[in-house]
Design brief:
Length: 188
């Protein structure tokens, strides 16, 4: 190789080595900054992945007598029976209902309460209380997405986490690619 060609290669190597150092700094500090978010999101994500299979995380869905909607009792009656069921089984009073979820294929409804992550499962046709238990998956999900603190924190933290992981992926690629490119240029 001629001297001018060697000089050009050295300049390119120097340029790539300088960029590589910068990417290492960005990668290291960004990794440290979002590490706690990634850790919490990872651990709670694993738990949420198992919520249907671990009864402690979310009570198993019971089965009702019939799936025929014509035989189901009115929703207002289901709500009253759910409140009474929670009061008698867990001695929890004045807990407002968050939502009622119908499981058409199982013939049941799940009444989810605002406080304490309580769930009452009713047979939708008879109104019989099938299960009263806590849904730990609900508060785990709130920790997972940051909404346990506030909706604004959820919005900010999820954007920081998403963008941070994107930047870590890009800088990680260059931390892998540039050393190979530098070795290739030096061997030519």
């Amino acid at each position: 190789m001629s001297t001018p060609a060697i000089s050009i290669v050295k300049k390119k190597v120097k340029f790539l080595a300088e960029r590589l150092r910068n990417f290492r700094v960005y990668h290291r500090f960004l990794g440290l900054a979002i590490g706690a978010f990634v850790l919490v999101s990872s651990l709670t994500g694993i738990l949420l992945g198992w919520k249907k299979d671990v009864d402690l995380l979310q009570p198993p869905t019971q089965k009702g007598v019939t799936i025929d909607l014509q035989q189901w009792i009115p929703l207002s009656e289901m709500a009253a029976l759910s409140v009474a069921g929670l009061d008698s089984a867990a001695a929890v009073k004045d807990n407002p209902i968050d939502r009622i979820e119908a499981r058409l294929d199982k013939g049941i409804v799940k009444t989810i309460f605002v406080e304490g992550s309580w769930e009452v499962q009713l047979d939708a046709s008879t109104g019989k209380v099938l299960s009263v238990a806590r849904r730990h998956s609900d508060w785990i999900e709130k920790v997972h997405d940051g909404s346990i603190i506030s909706d604004l924190f959820k919005l900010v933290s999820m954007n920081v986490l998403g963008l941070g992981l994107l930047v870590l992926t890009i800088t990680g690629f260059f931390l892998w690619f540039y050393p190979r490119k530098i070795r290739q240029m030096k061997s030519e």
